[in-house]
Structures
1.
Amino acid sequence: MDFSNIIPALPSMMDGLWLTLKLTTLAIIGGIAIGTLLALARLSNNKILSSLAGFYVNYFRSIPLLLVITWFYFMVPFIIGWITGTNQPIGALTSCLIAFMLFEAAYFCEIVRAGIQSISKGQINAAYALGMNYRQAMQLIVLPQAFRKMMPLLMQQSIILFQDTSLVYAVGLMDFLNTARSRGDIVGQPHEFLIFAGLIYFVISFGASTGVTYLKKRFSV
Amino acid sequence: MISIEQVNKWYGDFQVLTDCNAQISKGEVVVVCGPSGSGKSTLIKCVNALEPFQSGKIIVDGISVGDPATDLPKLRSRIGMVFQNFELFPHLSITENLMLAQQRVLGRSADEARDTGLKLLDRVGLKAQAAKHPGQLSGGQQQRVAIARALAMNPIAMLFDEPTSALDPEMVNEVLDVMTELAKEGMTMMCVTHEMGFARRVANRVIFMDQGHIEEDCSADEFFNSPRGERAQHFLSKILHH
C-alpha cells in the first residue's frame, strides 16, 4: 500500500468533496422544506390534497434513487424545454439537485408527519384558543416541537442522504467518491484511494451524528 | 354574553349533546358539573368552536360561533380558555408563553407584551419563574401561568375545562384561589369542574349535565340545598359524602 500519491490529488478531491457537501446541504434544506409541506398536505382534512401527497410519497419510496437520478437527468431538461419552449441544457448538477430534493422529500415527509402527529391535540387547541390561525399554530407551536422530537431521525436521514449523493457518478458528476476513484485509476492505485475516500465518509458521517447527540443533550430542557 | 340555544352534537351515531340551552350574562360565574361522559367538556369546547356542533346556535358577545363566515381566530382571541392539562408550550419559556399570542395575534409590541405578561405573572404569584420553562414548574404553577396567559389577551370571558382535575390535591387550592379572585373582579366565567366547594362559594349558577342533557340550571344555593332532579340528587350524594 502506498498512500503518497493521494497528496497531489487532494486539491481535485477537495473540489469533489465540496460538490458532495453542497449537494447534500441543498438537498437537505430543499428536502425538509418540501417534505414538511407534503406532511402538512398528508395530514390535511382535504381528501384530494392528502391522497395526492400520499401518492407522491409512496411513489418515490417505491423506486430506486439511481433510477430517479438518471430519469431526471434526461427528463428535466426535456420538461423545462417543453414548458419554456427553449432547448437549454440545465446540467447534471441541477438535475441531480432537483432529483435529490424531490426524492428525499418523500422520506423527510414521513419523519415530519410522525413528528407532527406526536404533538398532542391539546397543544393545537391551546394555540387555537389563543386566537392563532392554522398557519400560526403550525409554525409557532407544532412544528418547532415536532422538529425537536424528530431531530435524531432527520439527522439519520441526512447522513443517509450524504452517502447517497455518491450515486451521482451515474450522470458523470465529479463528486468526492467519483473523483477519488478516477484519480486512483489514473495512478493505478484504486484501492488506496477508495480506502481514503471511505475514511473521509466515515469521519464526516460519524462526526455529524456525534455532534447531533451533543447538541441534543445541550439543548434539551 | 354567552347564549347557547338548542345545541346538538353527534360523534357519528352517538349523540353527545342534546338540545342544550343556557344563558350566561356578563359578570356571571357558572359552574358546569356532572358525571364523566356527560358532555360538559364538549359543551364548553363548543363555545369557542374547538368542537363543532351540528345544530343549534351559540352566540358569544353577539357573534354566532357556528356561522361559517365568523372569523374564529378573532373570536377565540377574545375568549380565554384554561385546559385540564395546562397546555403551556413546552419549547418556550414562561415569559415567551405569555407574550407569543399577544404579539402574533393582537399585534402588540414585544415591550408591551412583556409588561402585560409579567404583570399578570406577578398577579398569580409567579414572577420569580419568568425565565423558566414549563417543565420546571409544578402542575399548580403551570396552571396559574396558563390562566395568566389567557388573561394577557384581555378576554371578555373565561372558559375553564376541568382546571384542577390533573393536579395533585395540595395544588388544587392555589389554582382555585386565582379563579376565585378572578370571579370577584367580575370576570364572566364558565367552569367545568368537580370542585363543589368552589361551586358553592363562588358560582352564581350551576348547570348540571347528564348524558348530553342539561338537567338542572339553577342558582348554586338551590342546586346544593334542594336539587330538583333525581339524577342531580344522586350525583350530589355520591360526590359530597366523602
Note: Residues 129 and 180 of chain A are 58 Å apart (CA to CA).
2.
Amino acid sequence: MTIRANNLRFSVLLAALLAVTGCSANFYARKTMELQAAQDLYAAGDYINAAAGFDRIIATHPGAAVEARAYLGLGLSYERMNDYGDALINYRIAVQLYPKDISLMLSLASLYDRLKLFPQALEVYNKALDKDGDNLRANVGIAKTYMSLGYLGLAAQHYEAALENEENPDLRIRMAYIECLYRQRRYQEAEDAMAKALPLGQANAALWLLLAEIQYDRGFRNRAIDSIRRASEISGGRLDIEVRRALWLSTDGSLDDALALARRLRVEYPNDPLVCWTLGMVLLKADKPEEAGRYMKEAASYDARTFISSSAKKIIGYIADAKK
Amino acid sequence: MKKAVFLFFIALAGQASSAFAASVVPDGLFDYRAVLSSDIFTKDEMELLYSSGAVTSDEIAREFLWTQLLAMPSEKRPKVGLVLSGGGARGFAHVGVLDVLRVNGFPVDMIAGTSMGAVVGSMYAAGMPIKTLWQIGNKATLDIASDDMNTFGIIRLLTTETLFSSQRMGAFLNEKIGEKNFSDLKIPFACVAMDIKTGERVVFTDGDVGLAVRASMNLPGVFKPVEYRHRYLVDGGVADNAPVDVARDMGADWVFTSLIRTNYTRTSFGSIYSYLMQALDIRGHMLVDESLKNSNFILVPQLGEVGFLDFSKATRAGQLGLEEAFRNIDAAKDSLMLFSMGPILNDYTRK
C-alpha cells in the first residue's frame, strides 16, 4: 500500500514537472516562431506589420530575453519608417535589458550618430569599445562621429585601429581613412594609405576621385586629370566627377576639352545650376565674358541661398567691372 | 498503463527540452541574431558607417574656388587678419578655432589678440604647433599666471590687498616660445593692454613679446599693473577685448574674429571678484559690439559650461571652440571667397 502510494505521488510529481517544462518549452518555441514571423515581415519590407508583430510579442510575452529581441526588431522597424524617436526608445530599452550585448549598443550608437546626437553616440560607442577594444564597428563608428564633430585627428586614430584589427578590411574603411587624412592635409600619409587601397579598388570610381583630389591639391595637376578621367570612365560619366573634370581641365589641361565637356554637360543637364555655373567659369577662362555672364545670371537665379548663386552674382559684377 | 503514461511524459519532456535548447546559445543568452539575421541587423548601420554623405553642388563650387584661392601667391590675395578676444580660461577655445583654420588651410596673415587671445595668438604666431597648444590647455592651471596663485596668496590678497605679480606669466611664455621680440615671430602679431592711469588703449607691435602678453592679460584688481615706459598696464579686455581695428591697422583686408562672449545676465555673484568681473564684462561687451562692426566674420564659441577662471576646463573650452569652428568653417570660407572673388578670377583668367 505504501509502495503504491509512493509510486503514485512520484508519478504525479513527475507529471507536474514535465508539464511545466513542456509548457515552458512550448512557450519559448511559440515566441521564437512569432519573432520569426515578425522578422519575415521586416525582411519583406512590411515594417508596419513587423512593428505590430514585435509590439504584440512584447505585450504578450514579458521576459527580458525575448523582449530584448522584440525591442530591437521594433527599433529597426521604426528606424526603417523614419520614426527615429520611437526607434531610439526601443533601442535604449533593448540595451537596458541586455547591457552586455555589444551589437545592441552599436545599433543605439549608430542611431544617435544618425540623429546628430554626437556626445551620446560617442558615449555608447566608447562603452562598446570598453567591452571589446578591437571591435571594428565601434572603431569605425567612433571615427565617423569624430569626423562629424571635426576631431579629424582622433577620427584617424580610430580608423587606424579598425584597419589594424582586420585582416581584410572593407575597402570603404580604407577610403574613409584616406579621406580623413586628406581633409587634414596629411597628404603623404593619405598617399601611403592610397597605395594599399588602390590594388583593391581599381574599379572604384570614388577611390579614383579621391586620389585625383589629393593629387590636385598637392599641385600634381596632370596626374590629377588622368585620375579623374579614370574615375569618370568607371562611373559612366557621373555628374559631380564630370563637373570637376571640366573645371580642372580649364586650369591645367586643355581649355578646348574643358569647354567641350562643359557644353556637353549643359546639353545633358539643362536645368542644373552647378553645370550652368561651371560652363560660365570655363567660358570666362576662354575669354568669352558675355556668354559667361549669361550662364552666371542663370546660375544666380536658381536659389539665392546657395553659394553657387552668391558667387555667380559676384562673378557677374566682376565681368561688368572688366567691361568698363 | 502507468508505464505508457510515464513514457509519454518522457517523450514530451524530450521534445520540449530540445525545443528549449534550440532557442538558447551556449553562453545562456538568447541569440536574437538567429532570429534577426546578421545581414538585416547590420545592413543599415554599415551603410551609415561607410557613407560619407552626398557631395552638394555648393561643395564642388566652393572646393574649386578655395583651391584656386589657396594656390594664389599670398601677395595677390586679400590679407587675412585673425582677431582673438580675451576670455580667461574660456579663451582656450581659440586653440580649437586655430586647429580648424589650420586643417582647412585658412590663410592667417596677421594676428591681433587681447588677454587670453594674446597668449594663444602669440604662441601660434611664434610657430608653436597646434598639438603643443592643446597640451598646454591640458595642463593649464591658474598658477601659470602667478606664483601667488595659492591659498596663502589669495588670503593675502583679500586681507592686505597686496596684488599678485604676473611675472610668472611672462616667464611661462618665454619658456614656451623663447625670449622673442615681435619681429622674430613667424606671423605678424599685436596685442592690446590698457594704461590704468589714463584709460588709454596701448597696442604692442614691437619689443618683448613676453612682457606685452603679460600686460595684455594682467587682470586688474588681481595682478599688479605691469610698468612699461612710464605706463601702468592692465588687461586690455577693459579697453578693447576684440581688437579688430588693430588687425586693420596691421594691413588686414578681411578679418576673422574669434569672440569669447559671456552671458553676464546669468552670473551668480559669490565674491567681490564676481562683481568686479561682471563690471569688466559689461564694459567689454559694450565696446566690443562697436569694434565688431568692422569684422568680416565673427565666430562665437558656445562655452556655457566653462567659467572665466575655470582653467581645469581649458581643454573642454578648446574642444567647444573646435566644434563651433568646424560647424561654421564653410560659412567663413564662403565669406572670404566672395570677398576675394576679384583676385581669384584675375588669377583664374590669367593666360
Note: Chain B touches chain A through 59 residues (CB under 8 Å).
